[in-house]
Amino acid sequence: MPDMLDTLMGNLLVPTILFFILGLLAAFIRSDLSIPEGAAKFMSLYLLLAIGFKGGHNLGQYGFNSDVYLSLASGIILSFALPFVAFALLRLITSLDPLNAAAVAGHYGSISIVTFVTASSLLELMNISFDGYMVAVAAAMEVPAILSALWIARHFAQNTNKQMVKVPIRDLLANGSILLLTGAFFIGAMTQERGMDMIAPFVVTPFTGILCLFLLDMGLSAGRSVLESRHLLRPGIFIFGMTMPVVGATLAWLVGQVVGLQTGSLFLLMVLSASASYIAVPAAMKLALPKAETGVYLTLSLGVTFPFNITLGLPLFLWFADWTG
C-alpha cells in the first residue's frame, strides 16, 4: 500500500496537473485571474498541432502494421460501445429522461483531446514509451460515440421528433480539432525526420510550458462551470460523472490486454475511454438533439469528469496500467 500511494503521489505531483489544480482553486475563490480568449485559442491549436505531428512522426518511423490496425479497431469499438454502457448507468442511478441521458452518453464514448495530451505529457515526464499511432486512435474515437448516442435517442426517447435526430456527418468531419489533429498526424508521418528537424524547436521545446498554461485556463473554466451550474449536479449525476470514467478505463484495460498493448499505450487507451468530450460532441448534440439540456452534459463533462480525470484519474490509471503491465 505505501508503494502504491508513493507512486500515485509521484504521478500527481507534476507541473501540468498542479497548474490545473491551481486554476480550479482560483475559480473556487473567485479570483480575477484569467487567460485572454485569443491566447487560449492559440494554445489549443498549438497543442493539437504538436501532439498530432509528433504522433505522426513516431508512426512514420515504424509504418503501419497489425498493431496499428488492432489498436484503431479497439478504439472504434470502444467508442461505439461506451455510450450504451453510459446510458444504462445513467438510467439506473439518475432521474434523467431518455433524451438527456442519450445526449450525455454520447460524450462518454467520445474523447477529451486535452486529457489525452496531458496523459501523453505525463508519460514523457515519466520516461514511459508509447506508440505514436495512439494519436490516430484518439481521432478515430471522436465520431462513433455520436452515432451511438443518436441511435439511442431515436430508439429510447419516445418524445423525440425522429426527423430532427440526424447525423451531421459533414459537420463532424469538418470539426476543427479533429481536422487539425489528423492533418498534423499525417504531415508528421509523411515528413518524418526531415520535418521534425525543421519544427522541433516549436513542437517539442515549449510544449510542456504551453500545456501548463493551457491547463491553468482549463482549471479556471472547469471551476467556474461548476460554480455556475452546481444546481444541476444532483447526487446521482455527480456520482455518474466520477464513476463512468472508471468504468470506461476498466473496459479499455480489458480490451488492451486482449490486443496486447504495452504500458504506455494501454494507459492512453484507458484515458481515452475514461474521458468525456466537451468540444466536438456538444456541438453535434446542439445540432442533432436541440431539446437536450446543454447545461447538464456540459457541466458533467467539463465540470466533473474532466477535473476528476486530470487530478485523480490519470495518476490512478497510470499506476494500474504499470502495475498490471
Question: How would you describe this structure to a colleague?
Answer:
With 325 residues, the chain is mainly α. It has helices at residues 2-12, 15-28, 37-62, 66-93, 98-107, 113-125, 134-140, 144-156, 169-173, 176-203, 207-229, 235-259, 263-274, 280-288, 294-324. It has a single domain (35-324), classed as Up-down Bundle (Na+/H+ antiporter like fold), CATH 1.20.1530. The chain is built from 15 helices and no strands. The radius of gyration is 19 Å and the shape is globular. The two termini are 18 Å apart. The mean pLDDT is 87.
Order of helices and strands: HHHHHHHHHHHHHHH
User: What's the CATH class label?
Assistant: Mainly Alpha
What integer value in Å does the Rg equal? 19 Å
> What is the number of beta strands?
0
Give the CA-CA distance, first to last residue.
18 Å
Secondary-structure-based class equals mainly alpha
Shape: globular
Using the coordinates shown, work out and report the CATH topology.
Na+/H+ antiporter like fold
The helicity comes to over 70%
Largest sheet, strands/sense/barrel: none
Low-confidence stretches: none
Total discrete domains: 1
Query: On the 0-100 scale, what is the average pLDDT?
Result: 87
**Overall CATH architecture:** Up-down Bundle
Determine the strand fraction and express it as a percent band: under 5%
Question: Number of helix segments?
Answer: 15
